[in-house]
């Protein structure tokens, strides 16, 4: 144990995701020896992010203003909504430059163990967005794990009466890889989701 | 296949241990509490990623050490594979095969296959159904490592569904009238629960049907092998029989068609729904099934004598060994302290049956416990030091 303030810092850092006690200690001592101006900038950035960043009124993505950059962009296709769990998933999909529609960030996935049900996610907001009939396709891009799949199934059932096109991201083989290295679950999924080859 | 080399770091009582092993019979002899079983436990862990003695990994790590490492060289058809496992209690284990890291530890399953006999096996015939479910599922994973994933997915879906049912059950109990119909229940604010229950049903059914189909197929394959092994262990006895017992009917002829099983499992869940919400737990599915053991017409559990129970447990293990052997690669046989538990006749029978195996590892407190049929290499184990004595 270190003197009060140092230990406080280590404890706080240790609460961050992916940071264990050793890493927390290393970061703390790095900060102690760093230039005071650098540390001030970091502290300022931390405070600023909590003060200024808000969540988009429409899609729930992180935003600097009332609405996020993507929702304000008139060139984006308003007929397609891609549903993701977290804001960081938006960034991942944006990097592909494949998708020109809009997003909806749920803020997690259904997980009764963690006490997360549909009411804890932004499902009601999604239904409100779908109500006016402008959206024709819903892409479900939740994580390909049990909770993500369950959330996708739930949403698909929920919007079924609305008659819009609901799609789920394909899961399968990594691009540029060798078939023999794929694990059996992934390979099995790839078989289930195979498609006709147009030639 | 056989284990050619075993190396331990901070595993159980061993700070370090190095052990060169040969095919054929090897006996580890020494008084109790000296670390014999720890050696074979480590080899069993390489094959199944679980201990046959404890349910959690924490006791496997030497007291005060952060992690344990097991390295084993497995030789099969003159080819050697090095498996390295790092056991991190409370965190994911890490594994390397031939010095190459695998993304998940369970991808290292299947390099070594073992069949382990231990005093705890008596629970197979005398214990709760959970013992026999574990027997079936462990064997499934040994046959097809992919089932480690299916089993984990099913358990996860089950946990999620149980958490949801618990919430529903509590919500219902809090309400003034306990016996509400679903509409009243939904309007009481718990409709959320019911709407997602169907989603979890779908996932439970999907993974459950896969597990169920695999278990049914397994029992079909084991049935003649168990009967044969029991007859060899106890000649002249009434025939031993095994049957899968599941939620719907006892004796129905079950197909192993996954789609059909999924439909039946779905129906069974629908029928149990009201009761499940009342009790807050999933009442049907592979986690409630059992492997029924019978001697003649009578169930082994409750009717079999102590000796018969032992024979049945051994017959199950021997059948597992036969099954794995018939599907390629002689598994390594591990006999952990079992001879001391058996009478002279069963002891000799068992020795005769296992003697031809490619590798047999035995632990015994005294050398006299090892039957003469099983002569081979011997290590003395005293106070954590392992010495080759011939």
From TrEMBL, chain A:
BP GO terms, sorted: DNA recombination; DNA repair
GO molecular function, one term: zinc ion binding
Function: May play a role in DNA repair. It seems to be involved in an RecBC-independent recombinational process of DNA repair. It may act with RecF and RecO.
Transcription regulation is among the record's keywords: no
Family from the record: Belongs to the RecR family.
Keyword tags: DNA damage, DNA recombination, DNA repair, Metal-binding, Zinc, Zinc-finger
Full protein name: Recombination protein RecR
SMART domains: TOPRIM
Residue intervals of the Toprim domain: 79-174
NCBIfam families: recR
Lineage: superkingdom: Bacteria
Species of provenance: Herbidospora galbida
Taxonomic lineage from the root: Bacteria, Bacillati, Actinomycetota, Actinomycetes, Streptosporangiales
Zinc fingers classed as C4-type: ranges: 56-71
TrEMBL record, chain B:
UniProt: ATP binding residues: 30-37
Keyword annotations from UniProtKB, A to Z: ATP-binding, Cytoplasm, DNA damage, DNA repair, DNA replication, DNA-binding, Nucleotide-binding, SOS response
Family from the record: Belongs to the RecF family.
Identification of the protein by name: DNA replication and repair protein RecF
Pfam family, one: SMC_N
Gene3D superfamilies linked: P-loop containing nucleotide triphosphate hydrolases, RecF/RecN/SMC, N-terminal domain
Protein localization: Cytoplasm
InterPro entries named among the record's database cross-references: DNA-binding_RecF, DNA-binding_RecF_CS, P-loop_NTPase, RecF/RecN/SMC_N, RecF_2
Translocase found in the keyword field: no
GO CC term, one of those recorded: cytoplasm
Entry keyword Plastid: no
Organism: Herbidospora galbida
